[in-house]
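[Q] Does anyone have a clean structure-token version of this?
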Amino acid sequence: MESYLLPKNSGKVCASNLIPIFLVLFPNKIKATEIAKKLNEIRASNMVLLGCLSNFIPIKKESWIGSIKKNVPQRAVKVNLNAFEEGRKLIELFWLEAYLFFL
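[A] Here you go.
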């Protein structure tokens, strides 16, 4: 029987498989509103979530950034880019926690 936590023929746990499962099990781990408040713009919580999600969609980071710059009002670009980056970093921090949880 093949495990969904292990990539085919590797015998090693794959973080890219663990993190989405971990976030489904523990959705309260993403504190998007708290992060947005720290950036002094609560409305940027959606960009924190988008940053998290962007780690799992095969689109280059530069494309995400370009799209944000193109579609967000100029006065809000900086805070939205910061929120997006915070969301991306958040997933990186989850890697170890998810890995340890599933051991």
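[Q] Thanks! Anything notable?
[A] The helical segments are 15-25, 32-38, 45-54, 61-71, 77-102.
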